[in-house]
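Q: How would the structure tokens look for this protein?
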Amino acid sequence: MAIYFDEDRPYGLPKDKFLEFREAFDYFDEFYCSVLPVEKLEHHLKEMGYDPTEQELKKFQTDVDPEETGGYGFDSFMKMVAYILRTGDAIEDDLIKVFRMFDVDESGLVSTEEIAGTLKELDPKISKRELKEIIEEADGDGSGKIDFEEFKTMMTKHD
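A: Here is the predicted structure in token form.
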């Protein structure tokens, strides 16, 4: 994989984001050797707010340290971070498209009735109790309307 570097968008990221991740890498580099231990990769990701699945963690470990040296440098770190950000952006883009399908009047809000109706169409066997629980959880402020952030939380909630 070729290194993507543009002075204004290093690794395809806005310069301020790039600098944040450079700072994070330097913070994790306890011995100032420009190499991070692969064994701490999961800890580093979690400290940055990303909780990888076991499958993702194995992939990242292989990607950042293909020769199994036990360490990885800044370039490998940034390729991993850029991948994570691209994946997250793609999911968010898909959620925005779905939300807009519900938001017919383009108000930025969807009524809980519309969500309930769609859920019933998708699963005609859904019980009233299950439907009520989903709606109450999604409509955190009890307004009867769901904004995009509430919708995103509802759609990405992991049980």
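The chain is about 60% helix and 5% strand.

Strands lie at 36-37, 71-72, 109-111, 145-147.

Upvote if useful.
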